[in-house]
Design brief:
Blueprint (H helix, E strand, L loop, with lengths): L1 H12 L2 H8 L5 H9 L18 H13 L6 H10 L12 E4 L3 E2 L5 E6 L7 E6 L2 E6 L4 E4 L8 E5 L13 H32 L1 E2 L2 E2 L4 H24 L9 H26 L10 H13 L4 H13 L6 H8 L6
Helix pairs in contact: 1-3, 1-4, 4-6, 5-6, 6-7, 6-8, 6-9, 7-8, 8-9, 8-10
Protein name: Acyl-CoA dehydrogenase
Cofactor: FAD
Pfam family, one: Acyl-CoA_dh_1
């Protein structure tokens, strides 16, 4: 029910034209207000607190839909922030909340939070600082864009006197939840890229027939479809279980596998579109640019594969298959 309602809003308000407008620094207020006023930011909030009280597995298709539409606002992060602030004495503030799983103090005393998703537009950031949970006002930060065309990601700097006190000790959950969000978004954006590529290959005629009829093209499409399917299955791992926060090991596998698929999926998509595939006018770049950005957000496959590998090496008598079966939650859990 919630998925269909959100997808209706996205189809009406999150069009490619609107995504491009937000990338040009136009206001995203209408889109954000539609999501906020409909109560969709409270999907993880318990019912007795006025929320929907959804389980993690119910969130997956919603977060995938956000990726499939290249949603240019931090809706998934704002939903997760409310779950991460579950034990905090104060309620989450109004406005756009984003997540930042890594922060460090510089020699000059500034707190540096690198590559914050939606850092250019967020009102507040929920930040992990060595395990402590900080809620920081982004209007007090110096925002440094990444320089990538259309990206809303930025590195943020806060002075010491603007930090305040920690609001919890579950800061490490921020990195895990944000990685799970990016895994789901990657899966959704890949599904859209595959759908666009299939449609083009069926419509584009060369040598008297659709290029999708040529065996070489079919081979590339099958490789692309395999990677997209594997990514969706991997993303599902992070959203299985009855906890409010995705489990670490399942999320590590999900983020690693989805990030690994990005280079191959994006390369095939652009190759099959040919010359038009590299143009700004084609909607494909709205998704492939984000896929490359999300691949490294909260750590690329190298980082998360390292987490999984270290855990496996602590159990020398356990095979890889046995390890995966035991560290990933069952769908019936």
């Amino acid at each position: 029910m919630f998925t269909e309602a959100i997808e209706k809003i996205l189809s009406d308000l999150c069009t490619p034209a609107r995504v491009r407008a937000v990338e040009r620094a136009d206001s995203a207020a209408t889109l954000w207000s539609a999501l906020e006023d409909s109560g969709f930011l409270e999907l993880l909030t318990p019912e007795d607190a006025g929320g929907a009280g959804l389980a993690l597995n119910a969130l997956l298709p919603i977060f995938v839909a956000f990726g499939r539409c290249a949603l240019p606002v931090p809706a998934a992060q704002s939903i997760a922030a409310r779950a991460l602030m579950r034990d905090c004495p104060s309620a989450p503030p109004a406005g756009m909340l984003t997540l930042a799983g890594t922060a460090h103090r510089q020699p000059d005393g500034l707190l540096c939070v690198p590559r914050v998703a939606f850092g250019l537009m967020a009102d507040f950031a929920l930040v992990n600082l060595e395990g402590q949970l900080l809620l920081l006002d982004c209007s007090l930060a110096r925002r440094q864009p990444t320089g990538v065309h259309g990206s809303q990601c930025a590195t943020l700097y806060w002075s010491q006197d603007s930090l305040g006190s920690a609001i919890g000790n579950n800061g490490e959950e921020v990195r895990v939840f944000n990685a799970a969000i990016h895994a789901a978004a990657i899966a959704g954006a890949m599904e859209q890229a595959l759908a666009m590529t299939l449609e083009y290959c069926n419509d584009r005629v060369q040598f008297g027939k659709a290029i999708g009829k040529f065996q070489a093209v079919q081979h590339q499409l099958s490789v692309m479809a395999e990677q997209v399917a594997a990514s969706r299955i991997a993303a599902e791992l992070a959203f299985v279980g009855d906890s409010q926060v995705p489990p670490l090991m399942a999320t590590a596998i999900a983020k690693a596998r989805t990030s690994m698929a990005v280079p191959q999926v994006t390369a095939i998509a652009h190759a099959l579109f040919g010359a038009i595939g590299v143009t700004e006018e084609l909607d494909l770049q709205l998704f492939t640019r984000r896929l490359h950005e999300w691949r490294v957000s909260e750590g690329s496959e190298t980082y998360w594969n390292g987490i999984v590998g270290q855990a496996l090496l602590t159990q020398p008598n356990v095979t890889a298959c046995e390890f995966v079966r035991h560290v990933t939650p069952s769908p019936t859990a």
